[in-house]
Amino acid sequence: MTLFPSLNGWVRVMSSPSAVFAGLLCGIAIGLFLPDFAAGLAPYGKLFLDLLGMIVLPLLISAVTVSLAKLFETGGAAHQVGRIAAAIVACMIVAAGIGLATGLIVAPGADLEQTDIASLGEVVSNSDRQADFEISMVGTPPTVKNDQGLARFIAQIVPDNIFRALSVGDNLKVLMFSLMFGVAVGMTPRGRADALTGALEIVFQSCQSMMKGVNTLLPLALCAMVAPLASDMAATPLGPVRAMAMFVSAQCIGALVVFVLFAVIIQQRTRCGILAPITALREALVLAIGTRNSIACIPSVIDGMSDKLGVNRKDLELVVPLGIILCRFGPVVFFGISTLFIAQLYRIDLGLSQYAFILFASVMAAMASSGGTGVMTIGLMALLCNPLGLPFEAAVALFLAVDPILDLVRTVLNVYGTCAVASIVCGRDSDQEAPEFPAINTLERGPV
């Protein structure tokens, strides 16, 4: 008889912010002081990620298909999809512009000290790319061949075999299939598709329940994932990291500006206190930091925005999965600053048309990065650098040296940006007039 109360107590304790924070600190301490033990924890962190990955694709397919089908049944589908697309594209272009402006203002690759240049050259010479390129601050850099970036991007969207896309976890192709399938189900005569949509709705709700259950292990999993990462970062030579300090600072500054902009958008759209969105979405943000997986945050984002910020849940169930896949705000900022960093490092002057190309190519490359690891995201920089003739291959080792830090920043920005897009597109829930943050709202209404 006492089993369920004790289980509920366990869930409450493990879901609390203090438990998650304790797991994070414990992982850092183990990584710094017990590196051998930290290495042994890595499989348990991977097990947690595998559990999340097991749920992700059924959750994505069922959420998008059911939401689109219901949207077509009730009418106004074209208008809603158009609003979602417009909001995503507009926010992506703004984020790309901020990344580009940050790269120009901070200029992380310009006027580096000679010792920093030597450290960067040593990283490149020790990598397997050094046979192709070497860092030279003078002369004309080698040219590279255009690899048909647009054709490659289109090929990454359209699946030739949906079962292959499912088996390899190609989220972008799975999303494209889900969109087309949802439209087809929605256009089926009313009544014939009710059994299918009902079954998929049960799948979606079940996946949400499974995700919440797995997330109760987050404090332990966070400890197991952070410990090896902290151990690896402690063993990393400081020379390359110090030499890339300006680059990392530029990335963090650009991400912070975009994050603040999104916070203002959410605050204005939900009519809540300025700190309320961060408080409401803290579980999703911590999950993003711990897992570095945006898709794993979908249920937490939906719950936080619906239950605590009063956004309509039915709208969120369509917008959030779409946004998590397509709203790649972290990579779009990363691509703009990184491309300018390479140009500045090699003292290559860019013109207005080339800046415009970087702006729009950053958006395309960012969308193509969906579901990719940090290494894959860095690899997609070829879509920007190759047409500009920038020696991208030489800089791969430099970006990999600091990617563990920047990957966290990119994931958080992806998740929070999706919340901003959802606040723009989705309506407020009529059953919930105001967010449940009276203390914060009272503070905001106080005297200035």
Automatic annotation (TrEMBL):
Keywords on record: Membrane, Transmembrane, Transmembrane helix, Transport
Record's subcellular location: Membrane
Pfam families membership: SDF
Membrane topology: Multi-pass membrane protein
GO cellular component: a single term: plasma membrane
Main location: membrane
SUPFAM superfamilies, per the entry: Proton glutamate symport protein (SSF118215)
GO MF annotations, alphabetized: symporter activity
InterPro entries registered for this protein in UniProt: Na-dicarboxylate_symporter, Na:dicarbo_symporter_sf
Name of the molecule in the record: Na+/H+-dicarboxylate symporter
